[in-house]
């Protein structure tokens, strides 16, 4: 599915964004990419979408050699790699429906098919009742759901989530993680760059740790640890649900 082999990226300033990075991901994997700011996480995302090219090394996605991919085929690659941007990139002068529709318009999908896809993904992320609203009318967690819907609407094989919970409180963060894990369980490969160590520690997923453009640790989860963390994650999800229910009951009173 995804293979980076001895990939380096040297920028014009002489600074290396990545140095000799190699890792493989199987179809349907969910991987956390962690590390401090400037460690190389965003550089990896930009390489996977062919926004930039590596200085050295090879990058394979499915059967595509990303380094040798012709410019004419780049739009086809980007249909298969959905991105949830850290700054969301939601257009404030368009409704949520129109924001999610945009990639389909660019891709030239028929209007009726586009409307069906948008309605389907908005239902999937729980925003059907907000589709005619403008972004300013939505809370942070709802805007994040809209960004996920837009990344999903072209049915990508891979989703790159850049700090998808970065500006959210604990309850909303776990809501977003639940949506992403549900998407992953249907077969979509997910790479999530995050600083949220609470989520990383409590979700039984592979962790690739970056520092100064290098992979310093690649942790695959054993079955025993996965089972233990899965139980812990379920308990945490129930606790958060109970907290939200209690808050809503208190507000109603």
List its traits.
Rossmann fold; 253 residues; 4-stranded antiparallel beta sheet; alpha/beta; 10 strands; globular
Instruction: Tell me the overall shape.
Output: globular
CATH architecture label name: 3-Layer(aba) Sandwich
Provide the structure class. Answer: alpha/beta
- Give the ordered list of helices and strands: EEEHEEHEHHHEHEHEEH
**Alpha-carbon distance between the termini?**
52 Å
Q: Give, in spatial order, the strands making up the sheet with the most strands.
A: 6-7-8-3-9-10
Residues in helix, %: 40-55%
Largest pleated sheet: 6 strands, mixed
Spans of at least 5 consecutive residues with low confidence: 243-253
- The CATH H-level superfamily is P-loop containing nucleotide triphosphate hydrolases
Rg from C-alpha positions? Answer: 19 Å
Q: What is the CATH domain class?
A: Alpha Beta
How much of the sequence is in beta strands? 15-25%
């Amino acid at each position: 599915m995804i293979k980076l082999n001895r990939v380096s990226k040297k920028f014009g300033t002489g600074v290396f964004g990545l140095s000799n990075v190699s890792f493989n991901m199987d179809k349907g994997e969910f991987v956390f990419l962690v590390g401090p700011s400037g460690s190389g996480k965003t550089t990896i995302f930009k390489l996977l979408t062919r926004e930039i090219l590596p200085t050295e090394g090879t990058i394979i996605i499915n059967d595509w050699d990303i380094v040798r991919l012709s410019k004419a085929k780049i739009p086809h690659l980007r249909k298969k790699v959905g991105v949830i941007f850290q700054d969301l990139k939601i257009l404030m002068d368009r409704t949520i429906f129109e924001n999610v529709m945009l990639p389909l318009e660019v891709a030239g999908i028929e209007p009726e098919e586009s409307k069906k896809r948008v309605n389907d993904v908005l239902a999937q992320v729980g925003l059907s009742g907000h589709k005619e609203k403008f972004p300013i009318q939505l809370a942070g967690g709802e805007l994040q759901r809209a960004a996920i819907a837009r990344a999903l609407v072209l049915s990508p094989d891979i989703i790159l989530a850049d700090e998808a919970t970065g500006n959210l409180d604990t309850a909303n963060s776990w809501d977003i993680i639940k949506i992403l894990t549900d998407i992953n369980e249907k077969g979509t490969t997910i790479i999530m760059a995050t600083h949220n160590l609470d989520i990383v520690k409590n979700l039984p997923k592979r962790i690739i740790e970056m520092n100064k453009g290098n992979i310093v640790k690649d942790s695959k989860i054993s079955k025993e640890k996965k089972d233990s963390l899965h139980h812990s994650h379920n308990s945490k999800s129930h606790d958060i649900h109970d907290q939200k229910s209690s808050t809503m009951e208190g507000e109603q009173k």
